[in-house]
Amino acid sequence: MKASREGRWVVSGPATPEPAPRAIGPRQASLIELGLRTVGRLSPEIRMALRHGFASGVAVERVYANPPRQRGTHIGRWLDRLYLRAPANAALRARQAAVQEAVKQIAATLADRVEVLRLFDPAAGAGRTGITQMRLEQSNGSPARAVLGDHAPSAREAAQAAADRAGVNDRVAVVHTDAFDPASLRTGAQGLAPNLVVVAGLYELQPDDAAVQRSLATLAELSTPPSWLVLTGMNTHPQAALVERLSGVSPPPGRTVEALGALAGRYGFRETRRLAGVRGVFDVAVFERRG
């Protein structure tokens, strides 16, 4: 995989991470939250995040898009810039770029083997990863398909709208999925037999090891070897106190790709590549499962 300025791809092992963002303690997190919920409402981006949740698919998609501010008051545009350029959000964009690159490289490997990409993302949010790759597959004349799932109606609506705008709705299915419910995963992926599963920004926020294990077991059951799994993990987040106050979710300690890889290994997935130290917070890893 090609190198990235956000870290470096290495073969099955950690690289030296970048420095993490400055740590934020509980008291500072409380003050920041107060500012976001009061004067922060002048920012359209912060209002959206407050309405849907800072960890929601639609709010995270706006962070990925990082749109230029053209409307609203001067202070609102200024707050938008502060929010979108915050270190934690910059790390999210860097993580997404790494996930997208991993997917692109796996798709290229499949094309070299004259195999068709069948992508399943059970926590797709607004669907950026899958839709971006399906546009590329379409331009290459590939019959690739993708199933993009999410539990939130707002995320599914955004994903469907994005697929329509991209002109790939004939190869993208947007469905309801709960990534921690085996029955929901089986229903969502029915008829796909995925050879690439992407789970980004999900497991690192789930404190229940059993739930993660059930999810991975089901995804292994659904995938058809040879298949790939792209996972993201999180090192100890220096801004965990702020994440908890804004999202209501406390990032569990130790939800790294090493820990996730140990769980995935139980179901035949072997780590082959890793981008370590994405902005000092995230790791992105690629696992392969052979028949």
Question: How is this structure best described in words?
Answer:
The protein is α/β, with parallel strands linked by helices and 291 residues long. It folds into 2 domains: 8-16 and 94-289, 3-Layer(aba) Sandwich (Rossmann fold), CATH 3.40.50; 26-87, no CATH class. It is 45% helix and 16% strand. It has helices spanning 26-37, 44-52, 57-65, 74-84, 87-112, 128-139, 153-166, 182-188, 209-222, 240-247, 257-265; strands at residues 8-10, 118-121, 145-150, 172-176, 196-199, 227-234, 270-278, 282-289. The protein has an 8-stranded mixed β-sheet with strand order 1-7-8-6-5-2-3-4, with helices on both faces. Helix 9 links the parallel strand 5 and strand 6 (227-234). Helix 1 (26-37) runs parallel beside helix 10 (240-247). The protein is globular and about 55 Å long. The two termini are 23 Å apart. The relative contact order is 0.18. Residues 1-7 and 11-16 have low confidence and may be disordered.
Strand and helix map with partners:
Blueprint: E1 8-10, H1 26-37, H2 44-52, H3 57-65, H4 74-84, H5 87-112, E2 118-121, H6 128-139, E3 145-150, H7 153-166, E4 172-176, H8 182-188, E5 196-199, H9 209-222, E6 227-234, H10 240-247, H11 257-265, E7 270-278, E8 282-289
Parallel strand pairs: 2-3, 2-5, 3-4, 5-6
Antiparallel strand pairs: 1-7, 6-8, 7-8
Lateral strand order in the biggest sheet? 1-7-8-6-5-2-3-4
Cα(first) to Cα(last) distance is 23 Å
What characteristic shape results from the CA principal axes? globular
| CATH architecture tag of the largest domain | 3-Layer(aba) Sandwich
Global Rg: 18 Å
Count of strand segments: 8
Specify the CATH homologous superfamily of the largest domain.
Vaccinia Virus protein VP39
CATH class of the largest domain: Alpha Beta
Helix content: 40-55%
Largest β-sheet summary: 8 strands, mixed
Count helical runs.
11
Overall structural domain count: 2
Q: Would you tell me the overall average pLDDT?
A: 85
**Under CATH, the topology of the largest domain is which?**
Rossmann fold
As a percent range, the share of strand residues is 15-25%
Spans of at least 5 consecutive residues whose pLDDT stays below 50 are 1-7, 11-16
Q: Which sequence of SSEs, written as H and E, runs from N to C?
A: EHHHHHEHEHEHEHEHHEE
Structural class, from helix and strand content? alpha/beta
